[in-house]
Design goal:
- With 337 residues, the protein is α/β, with parallel strands linked by helices.
- The chain is built from eleven helices and twelve strands.
- The protein has a twelve-stranded mixed beta sheet with strand order 7-8-9-6-5-4-3-2-1-10-11-12.
- The relative contact order is 0.16.
- Bound molecules: S-adenosylmethionine.
Amino acid sequence: MLRPMLVDQLGRPLRDLRISVTDRCNLRCTYCMPASVFGPDYAFVPRSDLLTFEEIERLARLFVSLGVRKLRLTGGEPTLRRDLSDLVARLARLEGVQDLAMTTNGLLLPRLAPDLKAAGLRRVTVSLDSLDPQVFGQMNGLGIHPQQVLDGIEAALQAGLGVKINTVVQRGVNDQGLRELWLALRAQAPVRFIEFMDVGNHNGWNMDSVVPSSEVLARLGADSETPVFDSLVPDYRGEVAARHRDAQGHEVGLISSVTAPFCGDCSRARISAVGALYTCLFASSGTDLRAPLRGGASDAELLTLLSGVWGRRTDRYSEERGEQTRQTKVEMSYIGG
Ligand code: SAM
């Protein structure tokens, strides 16, 4: 029987599912998991509380039957989850999945990229905020050198994975080196500059620390060597990055979550590592899917639950944010970035 298209209260379909596979990370980025909060005594989720691969696969299959076409693994740092390529293989086999991607800091890709590719992963988005060792070391909280991420990017490309690079821009922190970063990486992969967001409750966000995308683009084109940019037509409805191309065909993406929010087209659901369903990155609470999963719920019961949550969805936080942030948001490392 053909199911009518599931849409939320604002008419938005469900197309993307982000799956967090762990709340742990091997970096302590100051804007995401600052070491002062996520220190040696921080209580991460015990392994038995994490969704198993069987549970994730089952949920993903149900989400696909409700309209999801793109799956993205995230975290925390997804590559820290043991046997990740087994999960990738399970998800890659699901009928109806058009894209299977992962967001990662890239550090473990030299070891894992070939297996992930062989298991069916198509693309990685690698986060890299600066090529300046001093700046990057300070931002990642552990003094890790950018070369380690560059090695991960190289390994992903060698393995045949599609690669994009994510750079979060914070005024007064890494905004001086954006052009250098883009010039150094543009031939390898499209770079997407992301406006610093008020995710979580610990990153000291305020409007002054946001560099608007329009300013980022102006800085990239700041001298006569750098070409004028053409803006590209979105590939699909709901594409979050506004893409631009220089005269030599290099692409740059701008994700303006603060100055030009895209809630109106947001077709994304997120499952946390413990199986809570969130319909907005800035949500305060989610819907527990693990209890029904472990309590013997049938597929039909789970589908009713999932479609009920999506059908009632009204979230549009970024459009409502204004100058002030709300203080009760779930952490990004928990919900999955
Ligand atoms: N550990 C992986 C990584 O580093 O890509 C995946 C999880 S991380 C939370 C996902 C993405 O969210 C990264 O690109 C990170 O830079 C971005 N991010 C985290 N906090 C952010 C913030 N406050 N504003 C904008 N982007 C943020």
